[in-house]
């Protein structure tokens, strides 16, 4: 490229290279699109290219492919743009090219979606080009560039229009190839076919009558204020349903606040829920809003409510009755208005009988109980979900892989004690381990064999009941408070961002045998072992230490 200096010369060479890339039959669609974005950055200084695709459930455009953007920020939704906002939203709604030459100077531009170029935000332009399939906008190609006297914006727009027209068919191919069938409540009343083909990641996937009836129940009560209680085994999608209920409600533009009552140390749960005033206890350096207050006007999702300590149950009941909270150390009640969704996998009737759960609270929160079926009870969904996760991980890891026929049979005959989360992990592992383009029944069979033995090992071990709720040392407690008060220095605490992904997990979810087995399988690689068990690296290290396995696995990475 060094000898190419004129814009026209660069563009012609680039287009030639792009068409070569597009015609490679062995390359996956993800590989092709990312390759194009990389060429645009390296050859034409059109940086941080991204293809934004719609998530109809969230009414927003999300990054589907990108070049140069930090993956953790993509995962955190930093670049997500609501349909009705910003330049990207404008291109999406109108089908027109949208362009600004200085992101700092444009009021409609959403600043968070731009990245500095060579350390500076000065004179950065942003271009959004609609990507069409059959004349309809199906996504948006967005790109950043620096002011450059040698490249005019109109030349870049011409180039990007051609590129977008080449990307459209690739996206269409993927749509045809992918089988995920997703359900959106908004489509409930549309004709007899209650499923729509879409690629958005947050959709509820399935076609079984039991799943459909749960979705329908949510749909029927979406605009009511009555509390919903989601009942189901771990990994059946309770949190996903809670999010859907919020997304579909009139509170959708307000916060969705989620807290897992089982995995926050008892001593800290009250402050997490109710907040605290500055100086109300050691380490309370400033006022901290509790989750209930954060959920004001939105939805509060209390996961594993069955594990809430009795004294807090009484306080929660009062909040539900009076619609007021009082932060720790405060004498001023504060009005709150939120929709409550709770979830539990424990039998609350038993907990009430044993005196571990208040009957009056149970009546208050169990107004709309919704049962989420275990995966083994709806085997017809397994194939759809497996295909959906295959598609997702093939894109994520840029692998061009598909299943052979026998795989579905293999998957259907397994009991899935960990439900959809377990299926998701199994497919992710299969994609990562695939050596060719086909994933066969044998490969899935051997992964399931390991799953079986892990499950048996966990059944035969006494569950780590005492550790079900993490107990923190005084120092850990201080660190926790500091972190959650927003005072921890991220440099000192690299796990902070990571922990935001999946805030808490119970230590008994993965006992020492599972952790040992995962480490053995990954030859001691803790990051991979964490992934196998569906944990973040930080959660994994925490459990390793808590289970006293640190020394045993000290020497491995
Ligand atoms: N119907 C579904 N379609 C697609 N993905 C699903 C579905 N249900 C669950 N999942 C996926 O399975 C995983 C587990 O779901 P989720 O966390 O909502 O389950 P849960 O019941 O809340 O689990 P836990 O009780 O352990 O917290 C998530 O990654 C979620 O995206």
From TrEMBL:
Residues 204-432 form the Sigma-54 factor interaction domain. The keyword Nucleotide-binding applies. SUPFAM superfamilies: GAF domain-like, Homeodomain-like, P-loop containing nucleoside triphosphate hydrolases. Residues 493-502 have a biased composition (Basic and acidic residues). Residues 482-502 are annotated as: Disordered. InterPro entries: AAA+_ATPase, AAA_lid_NorR, GAF, GAF-like_dom_sf, Homeodomain-like_sf, HTH_Fis, P-loop_NTPase, Sigma_54_int. Pfam families: AAA_lid_14, GAF_2, HTH_8, Sigma54_activat. GO terms for molecular function: ATP binding; sequence-specific DNA binding. PROSITE patterns: SIGMA54_INTERACT_1 (PS00675), SIGMA54_INTERACT_2 (PS00676), SIGMA54_INTERACT_3 (PS00688), SIGMA54_INTERACT_4 (PS50045). Keywords: ATP-binding, DNA-binding, Nucleotide-binding, Transcription, Transcription regulation. SMART domains: AAA, GAF. It comes from the Bacteria. GO terms for biological process: regulation of DNA-templated transcription. This is Sigma-54 factor interaction domain-containing protein. The lineage of its organism: Bacteria, Pseudomonadati, Pseudomonadota, Gammaproteobacteria, Chromatiales.
């Amino acid at each position: 490229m060094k000898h190419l200096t004129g814009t026209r010369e660069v563009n012609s060479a680039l287009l030639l290279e792009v068409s070569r890339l597009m015609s490679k039959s062995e390359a996956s669609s993800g590989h092709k699109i990312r390759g194009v974005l990389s060429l645009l950055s390296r050859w034409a200084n059109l940086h941080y290219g991204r293809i934004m695709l719609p998530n109809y459930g969230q009414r927003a455009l999300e990054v589907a492919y990108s070049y140069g953007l930090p993956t953790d920020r993509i995962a955190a939704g930093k670049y997500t743009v609501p349909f009705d906002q910003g330049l990207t939203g404008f291109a999406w709604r109108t089908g027109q090219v949208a362009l600004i030459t200085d992101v700092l100077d444009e009021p409609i531009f959403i600043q968070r979606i731009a990245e500095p170029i060579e350390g500076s935000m000065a004179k950065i332009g942003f271009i959004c080009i609609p990507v069409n399939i059959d004349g309809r906008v199906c996504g948006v190609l967005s790109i950043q560039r620096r002011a450059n006297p040698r490249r005019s914006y109109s030349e870049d727009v011409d180039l990007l229009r051609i590129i977008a027209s080449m990307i459209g068919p690739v996206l269409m191919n993927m749509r045809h190839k992918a089988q995920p069938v997703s359900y959106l409540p908004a489509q409930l009343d549309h004709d007899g076919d209650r499923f729509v083909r879409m690629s958005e990641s947050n959709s509820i996937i399935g076609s079984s009558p039991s799943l459909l009836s749960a979705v329908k129940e949510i749909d029927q009560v979406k605009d009511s204020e009555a509390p919903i209680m989601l009942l189901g085994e771990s990994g059946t999608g309770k949190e996903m349903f809670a999010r859907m209920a919020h997304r579909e409600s009139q509170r959708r533009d307000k916060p969705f606040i989620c807290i897992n009552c089982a995995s926050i140390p008892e001593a800290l749960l009250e402050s997490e829920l109710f907040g605290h005033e500055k100086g109300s206890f050691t380490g309370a350096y400033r006022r901290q809003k509790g989750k209930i207050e954060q959920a004001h006007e939105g939805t509060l999702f209390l996961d594993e409510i069955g594990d809430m300590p009795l004294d807090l149950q009484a306080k929660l009941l009062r909040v539900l009755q009076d619609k007021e909270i009082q932060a720790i150390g405060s004498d001023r009640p504060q009005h709150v208005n939120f929709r409550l969704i709770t979830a539990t996998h424990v039998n609350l009737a038993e907990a009430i009988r044993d005196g571990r759960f208040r009957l009056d609270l149970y009546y208050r929160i169990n107004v709309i109980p919704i049962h989420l079926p275990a995966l083994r009870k709806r085997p017809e969904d397994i194939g759809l979900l497996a295909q959906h996760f295959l598609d997702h991980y093939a894109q994520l890891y840029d692998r061009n892989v598909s299943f052979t026929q026998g795989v579905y049979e293999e998957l259907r005959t397994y009991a899935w004690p960990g439900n959809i989360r377990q299926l998701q992990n199994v497919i992710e592992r299969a994609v990562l381990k695939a050596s060719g383009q086909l994933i066969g029944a044998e490969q899935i069979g051997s992964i399931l064999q390991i799953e079986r033995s892990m499950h048996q090992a966990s059944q035969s071990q006494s569950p780590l009941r005492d550790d079900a709720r993490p107990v923190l040392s005084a120092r850990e407690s201080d660190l926790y408070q500091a972190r959650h008060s927003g005072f921890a220095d991220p440099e000192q605490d690299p796990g902070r961002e990571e922990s935001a992904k999946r805030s808490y997990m119970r230590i008994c979810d993965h006992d020492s045998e599972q952790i040992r087995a995962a480490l053995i399988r990954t030859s001691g690689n803790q990051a991979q072992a964490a992934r196998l068990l569906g944990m973040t690296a930080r959660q994994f290290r925490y459990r390793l230490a808590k289970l006293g396995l640190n020394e045993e696995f000290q020497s491995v990475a």
